[in-house]
């Protein structure tokens, strides 16, 4: 009952904030005339495809482990399957990014729909090797989902010469949309699971959303590549075409250390976040019996929406590159408190709610920062390079979960987040690298 009330209150707060922001936007108006109308069309095209894509991802999450258990795999075998997913994402991610920058982000997002659908199909088999192939395909797919969609968005935004402030709005809406689809996916997944009495049913439903995303991308999106400059103009062929995208990306990072620092910050924060995804259930199950998983998850997503909705207010106070430092400190404190081993459930879950609020604010904020500092020509490649240490961190921790206590794991997450704050402070103090690729 308690979590239901909290969920209702959080959802009402989210609705009120969204209504207030839309009212303010309507009174202020968006400058740009016809460009504003085109912006809304481009934004809608992105949001439909993106929300369908992330819905397919969310639908699978709660049932992967349960399906492997249903197929009678041991914990060790299940661990291998999970590590294979993160490992393939780390190994193939850089190639995925280079492919997207060279041949097109739109094409890569369509490939995501195909590879993730094939991954879902493998769930119909109880063969370990087929499921391993599915995890590898899933790892490649998530690399595309968390890099190429955003790369296409930023490239398309620049191609139309839309104001930078409008990109902030799209990032915020995308994070809210992601949270809403997560809540809806939990309900939809449970509904088809119970209706068809099958753990594979949510994966089949995910294929439907992947098809919808692919159709939207093919119908509404324009292609953009790493060799396209502002306004969508393709740069003269020559050295950009002849160079390996990975080498170009590494050279850009060597010449501009702020890019490398930004990648380390992302890896530390998101590494802590992914570890938290694995750890919150056993931590809360020790305090709440039975634990209403669905309602707690709904509360998390509502907190995430509140965080995203805070972007407008905080960015009017100071730019994301500055307040992110304080955000990482707050996040570190929220992970440090559960690490103390306090035997009090409500203080622990409250810390988790605040951490999810931080996650909701983090994603649009880091997207804004990356859109400024990552060069367009190798954007998808660099985004995937950022994910390599992230996947290494997650795999290293997951591989040793059996030998370390929950409190130590949360302490590690706290350390990662405080390190991110230190790096963000250094990032702020570092001079900007003046170059033709940064606007």
Automatic annotation (TrEMBL):
CDD domains: MFS_MFSD5_like. It is a multi-pass membrane protein. GO terms for cellular component: plasma membrane. It holds the Pfam family MFS_5. One of its GO terms (biological process) is monoatomic ion transport. The chain crosses the membrane at residues 46-68, 80-100, 128-154, 166-187, 199-219, 259-281, 293-311, 323-340, 346-369, 381-402, 408-428. Residues 1-22 form the signal peptide. InterPro entries: MFS_trans_sf (IPR036259), MOT2/MFSD5 (IPR008509). GO terms for molecular function: molybdate ion transmembrane transporter activity. The keyword rRNA processing does not apply. Keywords: Cell membrane, Ion transport, Membrane, Signal, Transmembrane, Transmembrane helix, Transport. It is found in: Cell membrane. It comes from the Eukaryota. PANTHER family: MOLYBDATE-ANION TRANSPORTER, SAM (S-ADENOSYL METHIONINE) TRANSPORTER. Mediates high-affinity intracellular uptake of the rare oligo-element molybdenum. This is Molybdate-anion transporter. It comes from Guillardia theta.
């Amino acid at each position: 009952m308690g979590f239901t009330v909290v969920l209702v209150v959080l959802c009402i707060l989210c609705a009120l904030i969204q209504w207030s922001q839309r009212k303010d936007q309507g009174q202020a108006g968006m400058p740009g005339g016809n460009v504003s109308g085109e912006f809304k069309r481009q934004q809608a095209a992105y949001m439909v495809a993106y929300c369908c894509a992330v819905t397919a991802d969310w639908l699978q999450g709660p049932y992967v482990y349960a399906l492997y258990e249903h197929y009678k795999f041991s914990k060790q075998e299940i661990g291998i399957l999970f590590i294979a997913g993160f490992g393939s994402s780390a190994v193939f991610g850089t190639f995925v990014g280079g492919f997207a920058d060279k041949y097109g982000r739109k094409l890569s997002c369509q490939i995501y729909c195909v590879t993730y659908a094939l991954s879902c199909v493998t769930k119909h088999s109880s063969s370990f090797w087929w499921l391993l192939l599915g995890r590898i395909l899933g790892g490649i797919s998530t690399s595309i989902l968390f890099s190429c969609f955003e790369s296409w968005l930023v490239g398309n935004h620049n191609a139309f010469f839309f104001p930078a402030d409008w990109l902030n709005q799209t990032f915020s809406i995308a994070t809210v949309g992601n949270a809403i689809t997560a809540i809806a996916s939990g309900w939809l997944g449970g509904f088809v699971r119970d209706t068809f009495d099958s753990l594979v049913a949510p994966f089949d439903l995910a294929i439907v959303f992947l098809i919808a995303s692919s159709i939207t991308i093919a119908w509404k999106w324009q292609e953009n590549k790493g060799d396209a400059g502002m306004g969508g103009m393709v740069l003269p062929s020559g050295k950009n075409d002849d160079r390996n995208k990975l080498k170009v990306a590494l050279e850009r990072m060597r010449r501009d250390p702020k890019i490398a620092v930004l990648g380390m910050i992302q890896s530390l924060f998101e590494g802590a976040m992914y570890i938290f995804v694995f750890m919150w259930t056993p931590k809360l199950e020790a305090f709440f019996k039975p634990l209403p998983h669905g309602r707690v998850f709904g509360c998390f997503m509502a907190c995430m929406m509140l965080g995203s909705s805070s972007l407008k207010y905080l960015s009017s106070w100071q730019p994301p590159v500055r307040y992110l430092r304080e955000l990482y400190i707050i996040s570190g404190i929220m992970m440090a408190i559960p690490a103390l081993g306090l035997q009090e459930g409500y203080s622990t879950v409250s810390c988790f709610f605040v951490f999810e609020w931080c996650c909701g604010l983090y994603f649009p904020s880091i997207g804004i920062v990356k859109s400024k500092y990552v060069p367009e020509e190798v954007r998808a490649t660099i985004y995937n390079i950022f994910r390599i240490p992230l996947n290494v961190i997650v795999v290293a921790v997951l591989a040793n979960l059996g030998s370390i206590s929950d409190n130590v794991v949360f302490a590690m997450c706290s350390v990662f987040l405080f390190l991110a704050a230190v790096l963000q402070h250094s990032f702020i103090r570092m001079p900007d690298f003046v170059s033709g690729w940064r606007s």
